[in-house]
Write a structure and sequence with these properties.
The chain has 383 residues and is an alpha/beta fold. It contains 13 helices and 18 strands. It has a 7-stranded parallel sheet with strand order 3-2-1-4-5-6-17, with helices on both faces. It has a 7-stranded mixed sheet with strand order 10-11-12-7-15-16-18, with helices on one face. Helix 1 (14-23) crosses helix 11 (320-337). The N and C termini lie far apart (60 Å).
């Protein structure tokens, strides 16, 4: 019998599949998805494959029964219930699901079951949170946190100039879920896609940035930071097209009747949009990511700037967003499985450095080993 630790990956879309393959180099991995087509590319790659309805708690419990650790990569609408089932079952968990519920409410359950659960552990939220946590550990005070992030196709194709590098239904969540940010120490709620601004990035030029609900747990774990915002990036012009659809009702979940049949406009819009947003074989994407953190250190105002620009891996066909999101998660798996984070309870990434001072360095080194490199510099803050 193998002495490798057993890891079960729940959800094998583009990101889940990339994580399963990365972890299979070190662990005994079982990849689980309801869709056999999603599992097919993983055949013959050294993984065990299992089909299961991950929307069913009993099926989830059966799939993870023998796991030492579980990775959650299901669509956001089912992420909270899946995470709760895993934690209730007494399994350690590292999760990337973009669910609307407050993950922190699962903290008491994780503590009761004596498990380690790291949630929102992708690129943003995830890596961005980790960098904030490390800054809070090393600076005397943090006053401002700003994150820009976007996954974009290299080739801009009309009409959308966009492709979805992760679950398309979660992309629509970014466009409809109200965005929360912190201004003057208070949580502000604005519509998604609001307050657009133009930002220049040397690798891709000018992009549109707009409010999305990416701060997540740090709204509550870092209440002492008076200004925090996360903004998603797209090629210029994309926002207006999406706003037209949203404001016209295409993303509504309220059924309408067509020829006597009840349909949700969101389901129709998703079916039509997803055909345009799928990456064809050989198509490349890039991840553009920047985190700016301002604060005080030794009586001086400082700004920490972290940049990440990543491209798809052509040799394996792994999209960049799958790399940056997935490998942040698999780095956290290795952190927990390797005994480098022996703490029990639920932890969003921003809390890792405060509990283990070497956690950020560990995760960044794991990313760099896979070609995902964050460049950082420190400068005097003038604002």
């Amino acid at each position: 019998m193998s002495d490798k630790k057993r890891v079960v990956v729940l959800g094998c879309g583009r990101v889940g599949a990339a994580m399963a393959l990365d972890l299979a180099n070190e662990f005994a991995v079982t990849a689980v998805d309801r869709d056999e087509k999603a599992l097919a590319p993983l055949g013959g790659r050294g993984l065990a494959l299992r089909t299961a309805d991950l929307g069913d708690a009993a099926a989830v419990r059966a799939a993870i029964a023998d796991a030492d650790l579980v990775v959650g990569a299901v669509p956001g609408f089912m992420g909270y219930s899946t995470a709760r089932t895993v934690i209730e079952s007494g399994h350690d968990l590292v999760d990337i699901s973009f669910f609307p519920e407050d993950a922190l409410t699962l903290g008491p359950l994780a503590a009761e079951r004596g498990v380690t659960a790291i949630v929102d552990c992708g690129v943003a939220p995830g890596l961005s949170n980790l960098l904030l946590g490390e800054a809070a550990r090393t600076l005397d005070r943090v006053d401002r946190f700003l994150c820009f992030v976007g996954g974009l196709p290299v080739v801009r194709t009309w009409p959308w100039e966009y492709k979805a590098p992760f679950s398309p239904i979660d992309v629509l969540e970014e466009y409809t879920r109200p965005a929360r940010y912190v201004e003057n120490g208070r949580i502000v709620v604005r519509p998604a896609l609001s307050e657009p601004e133009l930002r220049d990035f040397p690798e891709v030029g000018t992009l549109e940035a707009f409010n999305t609900d990416g701060l997540r747990s740090i709204l509550f774990t870092f209440p002492q930071v008076p200004a925090m915002r996360e903004m998603t990036l797209r090629y210029p012009g994309h926002i207006e097209k999406i706003r037209v659809l949203r404001e016209s009702g295409f993303f509504s979940t309220d059924p309408i009747r067509l020829d006597g049949v009840a349909v949700r406009p969101l389901d129709v819009a998703a079916r039509l949009l997803f055909r345009h947003w799928r990456f064809a074989p050989g198509e490349e994407d890039v991840t553009v990511f920047r985190v700016e953190i301002e604060g005080e250190s030794g009586g001086e105002r400082v700004r920490l700037v972290h940049d990440l620009f990543d491209r798809a891996e052509l040799a394996t066909g792994t999209l960049s967003m799958a790399r940056t999101t997935g490998y942040t998660c698999t780095a956290a798996v290795r952190l927990v499985a390797g005994g480098h984070f022996p703490h029990r309870g639920l932890f969003p990434p921003e809390l890792l450095p405060g509990r283990e001072p070497g956690a950020a360095a560990f995760l960044l080194a794991e990313l760099a080993a896979r070609g995902v490199r964050v460049t950082s510099h420190r400068e005097a803050a003038t604002s």
